[in-house]
Amino acid sequence: MKIADYKEAPAHMFNSDAVKGVTGRVVIGKADDADNFCMRVFTVEPGGFTPRHSHQWEHEIFVHSGIGKIYQDGEWREVRSGTVVFIPGNEEHQIMNGGGEDFVFICMIPSGVDEI
After folding, report:
1. What would the 3-class secondary structure string for 19-55 be?
2. pLDDT class for 93, splitting at 50, 70, 90?
3. CB 60 within 8 A of CB 108
4. What pLDDT digit, counting tens, does each position of 36-45 carry?
5. Domains with residue ranges and CATH for the chain
6. Do 65 and 81 contact (CB within 8 A), yes or no?
7. I want to staple 51 with a disulfide (CB 3.0 to 4.6 A). Which of 18, 22, 30, 31 is the partner?
8. By C-alpha distance, which of 89, 85, 90, 11 is closest to 43?
Protein backbone atom coordinates (compact mmCIF):
# COMPACT_ATOMS: atom_id res chain seq x y z
CA MET A 1 0.00 0.00 0.00
CA LYS A 2 1.10 3.55 -0.69
CA ILE A 3 -0.22 6.66 1.01
CA ALA A 4 1.53 9.90 0.05
CA ASP A 5 1.09 13.55 -0.79
CA TYR A 6 1.09 13.82 -4.59
CA LYS A 7 3.49 16.76 -4.42
CA GLU A 8 6.19 14.38 -3.11
CA ALA A 9 6.37 12.70 -6.55
CA PRO A 10 9.12 14.05 -8.86
CA ALA A 11 7.92 16.93 -11.04
CA HIS A 12 8.56 16.76 -14.80
CA MET A 13 8.24 20.19 -16.44
CA PHE A 14 7.34 20.57 -20.10
CA ASN A 15 7.88 23.69 -22.23
CA SER A 16 8.30 23.73 -26.01
CA ASP A 17 6.43 24.88 -29.09
CA ALA A 18 3.99 21.97 -28.66
CA VAL A 19 3.52 22.11 -24.88
CA LYS A 20 3.68 25.08 -22.53
CA GLY A 21 3.59 25.45 -18.74
CA VAL A 22 2.82 21.83 -17.89
CA THR A 23 4.13 19.90 -14.89
CA GLY A 24 3.43 16.17 -14.64
CA ARG A 25 3.92 13.79 -11.74
CA VAL A 26 3.62 9.99 -11.77
CA VAL A 27 1.97 9.42 -8.39
CA ILE A 28 1.24 5.68 -8.79
CA GLY A 29 3.00 3.59 -11.41
CA LYS A 30 5.58 0.90 -12.18
CA ALA A 31 7.78 1.94 -9.26
CA ASP A 32 4.85 1.12 -6.95
CA ASP A 33 4.29 -2.29 -8.59
CA ALA A 34 1.00 -1.06 -10.03
CA ASP A 35 0.13 -3.80 -12.54
CA ASN A 36 -2.87 -2.28 -14.33
CA PHE A 37 -2.84 1.50 -14.28
CA CYS A 38 -0.64 4.55 -13.96
CA MET A 39 -1.99 7.60 -12.13
CA ARG A 40 -0.54 10.98 -13.01
CA VAL A 41 -1.26 14.49 -11.76
CA PHE A 42 -0.79 17.37 -14.17
CA THR A 43 -0.68 21.08 -13.40
CA VAL A 44 -1.18 23.47 -16.31
CA GLU A 45 -0.19 27.07 -15.63
CA PRO A 46 -2.36 29.98 -16.85
CA GLY A 47 -1.79 30.25 -20.60
CA GLY A 48 -0.41 26.68 -20.70
CA PHE A 49 -1.44 23.71 -22.84
CA THR A 50 -0.60 20.10 -23.63
CA PRO A 51 0.26 18.98 -27.17
CA ARG A 52 -2.58 18.06 -29.53
CA HIS A 53 -2.18 14.33 -30.08
CA SER A 54 -3.76 10.89 -30.18
CA HIS A 55 -2.64 7.40 -29.20
CA GLN A 56 -4.07 3.89 -28.91
CA TRP A 57 -4.88 3.94 -25.20
CA GLU A 58 -7.71 5.63 -23.38
CA HIS A 59 -7.50 8.29 -20.67
CA GLU A 60 -9.66 8.70 -17.61
CA ILE A 61 -9.42 12.23 -16.20
CA PHE A 62 -10.72 13.89 -13.04
CA VAL A 63 -10.44 17.66 -12.81
CA HIS A 64 -9.14 18.53 -9.35
CA SER A 65 -9.08 22.33 -9.49
CA GLY A 66 -9.20 25.32 -11.78
CA ILE A 67 -10.83 25.84 -15.16
CA GLY A 68 -9.63 24.10 -18.29
CA LYS A 69 -10.59 23.43 -21.86
CA ILE A 70 -10.42 20.11 -23.68
CA TYR A 71 -10.29 19.85 -27.46
CA GLN A 72 -12.91 17.37 -28.73
CA ASP A 73 -14.06 16.87 -32.32
CA GLY A 74 -12.85 20.29 -33.47
CA GLU A 75 -14.31 22.19 -30.52
CA TRP A 76 -13.08 23.35 -27.12
CA ARG A 77 -15.20 22.18 -24.16
CA GLU A 78 -14.87 23.90 -20.79
CA VAL A 79 -14.21 21.73 -17.74
CA ARG A 80 -13.80 22.67 -14.11
CA SER A 81 -13.28 21.21 -10.66
CA GLY A 82 -15.29 18.00 -10.28
CA THR A 83 -15.60 17.26 -14.02
CA VAL A 84 -14.76 13.75 -15.25
CA VAL A 85 -13.56 13.09 -18.81
CA PHE A 86 -13.19 9.87 -20.77
CA ILE A 87 -11.01 10.06 -23.89
CA PRO A 88 -11.19 6.86 -25.97
CA GLY A 89 -8.11 5.49 -27.69
CA ASN A 90 -7.15 7.09 -31.03
CA GLU A 91 -9.21 10.25 -30.36
CA GLU A 92 -7.36 13.51 -30.99
CA HIS A 93 -7.25 15.65 -27.86
CA GLN A 94 -5.53 18.57 -26.20
CA ILE A 95 -5.91 20.24 -22.82
CA MET A 96 -5.37 23.89 -21.95
CA ASN A 97 -5.75 26.12 -18.94
CA GLY A 98 -8.93 28.15 -19.37
CA GLY A 99 -8.62 30.46 -16.38
CA GLY A 100 -6.30 32.63 -14.34
CA GLU A 101 -5.12 30.03 -11.81
CA ASP A 102 -3.42 26.65 -12.06
CA PHE A 103 -5.51 23.93 -13.71
CA VAL A 104 -4.89 20.58 -12.00
CA PHE A 105 -6.17 17.22 -13.21
CA ILE A 106 -5.63 13.55 -12.46
CA CYS A 107 -5.07 11.29 -15.46
CA MET A 108 -5.19 7.49 -15.52
CA ILE A 109 -3.55 5.46 -18.27
CA PRO A 110 -2.97 1.70 -18.67
CA SER A 111 0.30 0.24 -17.48
CA GLY A 112 2.82 -0.65 -20.16
CA VAL A 113 2.85 2.71 -21.94
CA ASP A 114 5.19 5.63 -21.21
CA GLU A 115 4.22 6.96 -17.81
CA ILE A 116 5.14 10.60 -18.40
Report:
1. CEEEEEEEEECHHHCCCCEEEEEEEEEEEEECCCECC
2. very high
3. yes
4. 999 999 999 9
5. 10-63+78-90+99-110 (2.60.120.10)
6. yes
7. 18
8. 11
